[in-house]
Known about the structure:
The structure is a single chain. By secondary structure, the protein is mainly α. It is 51% helix and 5% strand. The protein has a six-stranded mixed sheet with strand order 4-3-5-6-7-10, covered by helices on one side. A two-stranded antiparallel sheet has the order 1-2. Strand 5 (581-585), helix 24 (595-609) and strand 6 form a beta-alpha-beta unit. The longest helix has 28 residues, at 86-113. It starts with a helix and ends in a 7-residue tail after the last helix.
Amino acid sequence: MASTRAKIGHGLAKVLGIKLHYRNETGSDRVTRGESVFSVSSADTYVEDEPTAAEWISEITPSLKDIENYFRRLFPFLQWITRYNSTWFLGDMIAGITVGAVVVPQSMAYAKLANLPVEFGLYSSFMGVLIYWFFATSKDITIGATPVAVLSTVTGNVVTKASKKLHGVPPDIIASSLAIIAGSIVCFLGLARLGWLVEFISLASICAFMTGSALNIAVGQVPTMMGITGFSTRDSTYKVVINILKHLGRSTTDAAIGLTALTMLYLIRFACNTMAKRYPSQRKMYFFLSTLRTAFVILLYVLISWLVNRDHKKKPKFNILGHVPRGFQDARVPHITIDIIKAFSSDLPSVVIVLLIEHISISKSFGRINNYTIDPSQELVAIGVTNLLGPFLGAYPATGSFSRTAIKSKAGVRTPFAGVITAIVVLLAIYALPAVFFYIPNAALSGVIIHAVGDLITPPNTVYQFWRVSPLEVPIFFAGVIVTVFSSIENGIYTTICISAALFLFRAFKARGRFVGRVKVHSVIGDHLLDRDDAKEGGTIKTQTPLLESPENSARNIFLPIDHNDGSNPQIKVEAPYPGIFIYRFSEGFNYPNCNHYLDNLVAHIFENTRRTNPATYGKLGDRPWNNPGPRRGKEVDPMDHRPTLKAIILDFSSVNNVDITSVQNLIDVRNQLDRYVAPDTVDWHFACINNRWTKRALAAGGFGYYTPEADLDSGLHRWKPIFSVAEIGGSSSAAAAAEAQGNRRAQRAARGLGGTASDDIEERIADTDDKDSLSNSKAYSPGQQKHLKIAVVQGLNRPLFHIDITAALESALANVQIKSH
């Protein structure tokens, strides 16, 4: 009895003209002899239910447990902080102090890239390392004022451009506003769990972005290192190079400081690396010496600067930092206005991309190296919160740093708590070292920046490996680098991302399917593959021992592309499934972008390799379509055309997860087209390896999955034969369970050894006899006759043309091929 809700629904559908039962999946209610032979006595029946919208909504609706886990995952430190111990603390302290010694000089240098006083770099680094550990899923990442200087450079470009529009607004106010707005966007993406969006940025794009940025930054620091002035270092890279060459003769004593500092940095690193290779037992010591080279060089030149300029503070012999305020003198509530946001709104996308692009790639990379998994969405939350809170102490946009992350990892960091140790080091520098900072030479800081970004350039060997893996992506890499050098970092980012997206879409739109055929293969023992006497003559297979020990036949059918475009051995002949039967394998998804391309290829191949079932379909010349006019006037269709007629199509859906309205409608149109081509017969459509219930529902809604009734069904001459795949039902009575029980008893008997009693042996023999009886009931363990097997169909009986694999689909197609009229 239908429910009231069902009655109302059916009535409403009738009023709106919706056909609820527009398809008859079984074709006919009558069952003739020779059709389905399964009954409840031989196999358990199974009818597959379609998924419903209510079921989908139920799956995606979070439960109370899901909501609780969501809020718990926002604070990952709660999972490990209660188990914190002294061993972890020792590792964190060493790594934190080491990173802190690197952060202090680098953050001051990178603040100058952002067109800000050096203290703002310290503020950004302090807030980054202090806040990040609360939300971190990576123990190695170090957040601060530097994503290897790139974010500082982008921030400096934004501040410079916005300052021209905002007269009287200090640059640090603009930078703080930029940090809050960009941090809000990133935090929202993280809270909405949209971290997967970062996957759209390819590795080639990231490498091009980093290489081009490194060249841009390094070239921009050469004038400061050489003491050259009189032109803008914010111009395109090629313009800066030209201006450097023009004004190289105006170099000052700063060049002596900068060049020697840069040389010393490389010499110390080279010496430490060489000694570490020569004395592996002392590798750790040389690593720390190499890591601290930046702090050592800065302190050395501070000493030199103090000796030279202590009596010339007002007019130093070379450029120095000068006064650096002690403490957090710029702590404040950030001042954000609509005018400030409008001034940098056009550059906001590039800032957000730079915030994300390196942090996620670095954290994933070090997570794989150190055997842990990061949560990209949670990392976005960490970046967002850091940039939201940092401006209250004067910070500007900050994100993860590759160089400092690598140092932290090699230093033996144990937990994200190492960031607190680094924050303490930075805090001590802010309050205790401003007097020392006064004498830091600007040229030495430029040398530090150039040395840091030099490692960012992608080496030629890596580019060659890119070429080996994917030649199409190498031009993307060079395009990004060239645009960055001749335009700007922001344009380089947009270029690589857009070209990568275009390549992805092109591959999706132009995906090519493959027609496959059958090959019989054997599994043999590798040591006895070839007979030694025959190997030289023909290399024919002659096994010295039986094929892999198994009661089942080791020979099996596989399906390879007929044209061998997959790289399989072209000497192996691929058999066509059967005249008039085609097996088509999709290479990627089957959706609206590529469905036409797939099906056009399918139809063209079928028309090329088959003939029309009834050449007399068109009674006279005027009935023929213009695009198929037939033979010339006075000539008949070639009677010697021995091509087969089309009988069945098998589609391999192993690479298809979802289908859509467009793809299914195109499939329906092709089915109708081919049915006219084979009239008065119809084409059987078989589908193999469908792995999504919604895909089955969509195909069934289009009339696929069950046979097409013949026109002369009442004659009883044509009986459709469904072929179903069945499997043994698992459980305690299955052969697998019996085999496992037998193995366990034998293992227990072997463990007892001679300690067993006579009664134990009797029980074991009885159990083994029972096991053998159970095993003999299964073909999987005995080639004999099956006895009392409990089996069931794998796929639903209501979808007989949906098959578990290509072999089952081909068997079903072959079983019904004889009913075709030609």
